[in-house]
Amino acid sequence: MSNLGLLAGKGELPLEFLKSAKEKGYSVTVFALEGITSPSVEEYAGNVFWIKPFKLGKFLSLLKKSEVKNLAILGKVEHRNALSLTGFDFKALSFILSLKDRKPETIIRGIIEEIEKAGVKVIDPTPFLSHLLQPSGVLVGDLEESLKRDMELGMKVAKEIASLDVGQTVVVKDGTVIAVEGIEGTDECIKRGAELSGGGFVVCKAARRRQDMRIDVPTIGKNTVELIGKLGGKALIFEAEKTYLLDKEKIINSAKTFGVTVVGV
């Protein structure tokens, strides 16, 4: 795969991709978003173009001028910005207004179409991130019967909302759905679930039923585990083989520290 590029959003996932690509001998051209993408991409990239967020015309222009032929899209960009239209250039504005809706998957698929119109293939980044995917099984803790019941309910509902492109995360307790993730994001959903449940809750995170690994793959890190633990939660359940675990050892250590059971199903 020659002439490799990365459109990088927020978080550690773009960095993991770049580290892996570098180890495999690739020099990656990064299109980074000012104020969103970690400056650390400079350390691992072959070349970096910094672009103001939501300047789609500028990005496509730079992409066409570059030698990039294969591009990955990784990292978070707040979905609520797609509703406010703040900072959009004319291309981005006309693009967003042309979509049938503004669900996350619709927006990303639309951007993929624009990129591929420019002659660049948007790739599945899994070959560079397979080390972050975890098989099913208990990572930390014990899978008690009461937890199994909440896990089954939570993952069933999480799968439905993910497939509807609502969110990926559900908080459950004692057979009751306490909170469902919307546009606010995972952390705020967990906080709301903790407040409403009074502790002892279970967080479940799932991928879409037909998950395109190029688009918004579920991701968890130690901060998620720590948040659950600090708020009195007892478990984090994620979809095995379709969730990126950022630094598994740190996740395990945090889970043990806070007494959080972590299970892939």
Keywords:
265 residues; five-stranded parallel beta sheet; 20% strand; 11 helices; 2 domains; six-stranded mixed beta sheet; Rossmann fold; LpxI_C; globular; Cytidine Deaminase, domain 2; alpha/beta
Q: What kind of assembly state do the chains in view correspond to?
A: single chain
Give the strand line-up of the largest sheet: 6-13-11-9-7-8
Q: Residue ranges: pLDDT <50 for 5 or more in a row?
A: none
CATH class of the largest domain: Alpha Beta
Q: What overall geometry do the principal axes of the alpha carbons give? A: globular
By helix and strand content, what is the structural category? alpha/beta
Report the mean per-residue pLDDT as an integer.
Answer: 95
Describe the biggest sheet? 6 strands, mixed
Order of helices and strands: EHEHEHEHHHEHEHEEHEEHEEHE
CATH architecture term of the largest domain: 3-Layer(aba) Sandwich
Span between N and C termini? 32 Å
Radius of gyration: 19 Å
* Percentage of residues assigned to helices: 40-55%
What amount of the residues lies in strands? Answer: 15-25%
- Count of strand segments: 13
CATH topology category name of the largest domain: Cytidine Deaminase, domain 2
What's the total helix number? 11
The CATH homology group name of the largest domain: LpxI C-terminal catalytic domain
Please indicate the count of domains. 2
Domain LpxI C-terminal: 143-263
InterPro entries: LpxI, LpxI_C, LpxI_C_sf, LpxI_N
Domain LpxI N-terminal: 3-132
Pfam family, one: LpxI_N
Report what the structure shows.
The chain is α/β, with parallel strands linked by helices and 265 residues long. It has two domains: 4-128, Rossmann fold (3-Layer(aba) Sandwich); 133-264, LpxI C-terminal catalytic domain (Cytidine Deaminase, domain 2), CATH 3.40.140.80. 40% of the residues lie in helices and 20% in strands. The chain is built from eleven helices and 13 strands. It has helices at residues 13-23, 41-44, 56-65, 81-84, 90-98, 104-117, 126-129, 145-163, 186-197, 222-230, 248-258, and strands spanning 4-8, 29-33, 47-51, 70-74, 121-122, 137-140, 169-173, 176-180, 202-205, 219-220, 235-238, 244-245, 261-264. The chain has a six-stranded mixed β-sheet. Strand 2 (29-33), helix 2 (41-44) and strand 3 (47-51) form a beta-alpha-beta unit. It is globular.
